Fold each of these.
Amino acid sequence: MGNLFIETFERFHDTPSVLEIKSVTKNFTNKKVLNEVSLTVNEGEFVSILGPSGCGKTTLLRIIAGHDKPTSGKVFLKNRDITTDEPYFRPIHTVFQRYALFPHMNIYDNVAFGLRCEKKPESEIKDLVNEVLGLVGLQNQGARSIGTLSGGEQQRVALVRALVNRPQLLLLDEPLGALDLKLRLQLQQELVAIQKKFKTTFLFVTHDQQEALNMSDKIVLLNKGVVEQVGTPHEIYESPRSYFAAQFVGSINTLEGMAKEKLSDNEVKIEVPGVGEFKTEPNGYAENATGYLCIRPEKMMIYSKRPTTVPNVVSAVIKSQSYLGTYSQFEVTLKNSQNFIIFQQNTQKLPKKVFKNDDPVFIGWQNNASHFFKK
Amino acid sequence: MTRFINYSSYVFVFFLYVFLFAPIVVLVMFSFNNASSLAVWSGFSTRWYHELTNDISILEALTNSIEIAFSATILSAALGLCVGLSPKHVFKKLPLLPIVLPDIVQGLSLLCFFIWLSVPLGKISVILAHASFGSAYVATLVRSRVKVIDPNLKEAASDLGAKPWAIFFKITLPQLMPAVISGMLIVFTMSFDDFSVAFFTAGIGAGTLPLKIYSMLKFGVTPVVNALSSLIVMTSVILMTLAFFNRPAKT
Amino acid sequence: MLPTFSKNKTSLPTLMAWFWALSLVLAPMAYIIIISFMTRGPYGGVVMTPTLSNYTKLFDQGLTPLIAWAFLRSVLMAAATTVLCLLCGFPLALFLVFKSGKYRNLLFFLLVIPFWTQFLIRVYAWMSLLSDNGIFTQVFGTTWLFTYKAIFIGMLYNYLPYMTMSLYVNIEKLDVMLLDAAADLGASQFVKFVKIVLPLTMPGILAGSIMVFIPALGEFVIPDVLGGGKKFFIGNLLAQQFLTARNWPFGAALSVVLIIVVGLSFYLLSRLGKGRELEELI
């Protein structure tokens, strides 16, 4: 009995791809908000659409939910074309920012609302509601009013309210945007846990890259209406395919230079005027192209003497340092007056070498720690 | 179905506004009527406006109304501030009484009371009567405004060496001003507009404009009333337009 | 909150507050209640001889129907006015909040303009419109002046802005996202209205009802001017007792009854809501 929900759920969901968006374009008067956007979301995945404000992610969400129609392109839900379907015909639910829980109803009535709209019998509603409340630790709390709920409890009620209907897809529109950091981190964990428990496919929109990295199975990086990259958090972070991706997710140090020559199958040379020559992986190489050489701060090491074991070295001077507990942050100035940020994890209680400001040092990194993106 | 509701909502609102404006429009129209009829048009004329300017009793009533409204507003502001700022519980609930009680009850009770106390019935009695409920409105507005004032400001001022009265005039009062101003506007309007209370508490010679119009209605109406009404409407509209488009931040 | 001259003495502002409370609010009320128990003087006025006759008179065989009917008429008229104002004001307020778009300020302004003209002028305007030669009569055939219909039109015209504003203030605060969420969960327009909009606007509806019903109870000018003075409501009765019949104690007794009716109505309406509406609506 208690698994009625999960059983019926599993019976209905057996196809791998849940959502397919094909070349969706959306024009507003003279602005192209979405440009040939395509993506696939698979069953049970937690997918984040990540991008800065104005990148079109909310518009995309609205098109998926049915509040807007695309100028061109199609939306498929489980191989059914829903591009022109009205919102209430789509088995998709949305969790809104600030949750939009009905303040004049208690928890039970909030969660039961959608079921009642579908005119389900009260006895069935009672079982379903109590079951999902139990799944999120709110069993027997149905009579509580919304005003007494903590932030975490509100999120749980908002989620089960949308999930009790067994939608094929759940859309979340930056639901954690308005919260303070500590609560946000706690609720991120809870969200993922609930998603895994209900096995519903989640499509999560956010502008916070830390959030996307933390929660997603897959990230869709959106910039100015164009899909920049789709991949796992690891792929997006470690193998960014564009300069935008590299600097939007995490931080990077950038050197402007020119691709000089291909040294081998997995090594190319980049010349940075005024700084030196560096080697990096061949992705994005085009002869004589100007572009950006990007290195992650945690992938660089500081040496007091010029190292011989790393292929890329620059000389620099320590500008400032901050001790941040888990790691320390160093700011160094290069020959060309550019500043680099370097993170060093404090693996030892007493580091091997203590640096002072204005110390001359060497910065070194491996080839695969850097990426070259042509302009 | 929703499109039907959609369409009919515009129609409904349109007719509602016609309903709201029709009387006023007809009123103004007939103030320019050549004949003394209120309904049959016989040509354009401004004679009633001329007659209006010659009618001393109307001008007297207008002056009275303005004087009374002005005085009542000031008095209400002062009393209302005192009541609104008093922490005692009775002053929290008492302002509700004049606001909720129908005009006629207030007018009658004040009339009897004034007569018993031998308060002369004239402009003073009307001013006091208006201040009775006027203060209640100001008090209520002030009290709700007090709730949103930052309490730290007073402490900061006193920390910097300001004495209690200085704090009141330089910090508290300016912060309360929006509420007081709104209150004063409301009281002025209510006083100028009031008929029921003034009907009972005005003595001879203290006739307000509404009272004068009432007597004109009872004893024979000519479009002079229309002319007067139109002027009032015109003035109100102009004042309202100016006020509306130069609005300070909402209370 | 106010500065005091010394910690133990009452300050000037508090004294002023007490002056207002006692002399302008409580004392007149108390006086009316007291004289309702007194006797009518020979030429009108009051003689301080305590008696219950004013109240027993209310149950006098000949008088009771008249008085009872006056009260009943007032209550029914006030109720009808409130309902009319709700029926017209609620859609209007909804329209202003959701459908008026960039014209919202203008429409609001237009709504308030008639309200800024003199009360009596508004009544007079309807009187001339509805009179025998009035435009309304010419269009609709029969004259409505001096009928109940005229009174209702006058009442609706006068009280509609109060109701609409009270509703507007309340509806404006409605979180539109709640309606989106309801739609997302499958609610139809009807369900959205009944289950979300209505419950959440109830405070505004009650506040508006209080603002209309209670003053309407005591209304005597509109029935007098538009009803021709022939339809008797409690306001007319009161005015008559005090001014024409000069029977102040009896009039006072009637006032007390009216105050009780008002108090009861206010209490009942407030109980339906949560009691904070009155401050909100101002």
Amino acid sequence: MAVIKKKKDKALPAVNTSALPDIVFMLLFFFMVATVMREVDLKVSVDKPQATEIQKLERKSLVTYIYAGSPRAKFQDKFGRSPRIQLNDAFATIDDVQSFVVQEREKKSEEDRPMMTMSIKADKSVKMGLISDIKLQLRKAQALKINYSSLQPKNVDALYSSEN
Amino acid sequence: MARNKRAIPEINAGSMADIAFLLLIFYLVTTTMDTDKGINRKLPPWDEEIIEDPPIIKERNIFTVLVNSNDQLLVEDEYIEISQLREKAMEFIDNNGDGSCTYCKGFKIPTSADNPDKAVISLQNDRGTSYGMYVKVQNELVAAYEDLREKYAEEEYGKSYRGMDPEEDKDIIKEIKTAYPQKISEAEPLNIGG
């Protein structure tokens, strides 16, 4: 009688994947630690200007953001295209800035208040009229530390070309 | 023995990877890795009353930078490109007109600044100037000071100013900053070419 060999013996053994969860967990923990939750939904489009003399904002808890730029495409039917200010999650007018700063300052602890920094995240095409108005409101609200949010250019020569 | 056979069966951990992947993808999507960077500036405090007699500064100690609504630069009554601004500003600050600055390397031009301590850069823009241009001008002016400080640090201490540790070299940084104090004054914007 012919001997029928079992097929099982020829099949490749399965790759041991028991270490896969460990690897994935490692990645997961890395991202959990490195992550900063997006706090606001940007309603304005912001293409930051470029600069070389930039400093890092050290403590995020001390920073309050003011966004300025043209409303994004989906908001344009309602709000038009002219640049607007965004505070937290909503469009705002220039008169809201001062109360916003006061409100944000209240949230911070007593010793942190003098170190509060306002980060202005504005699109590079925004006219200075709007930015000057914001700055005036900040001065009135006694928020004097500001930061013009900008990007490090990949190529320094691009800074001087007329396009940007 | 019969007891051994009744040991608790192992829990199937095959789907563990799936759960971990799900969490991983969630964090990948929500994560923002951008670190916030920008040019730090300090605004002057707001005062209701107009200061009656502002300090008198000699014309030669003021370096005027005007930016119009077409993003063009007028520096010391001269039309220049943004790429020339840093050099012009450095020449002005480092001019050493009265000879009191021992570390300056300026040309001692009589119509330019007396010394770095007296030199003031006055910046005025139009309401129609673009924010991008404004940041560029600010950047060049700050860079002019930083470059001078860098040179000074190299000569006096033999190390780079930009590479100094803010805690360790606290006193040196302070000393360099008094050698070249940053004096950039901003005027209220004009509204000509709206």
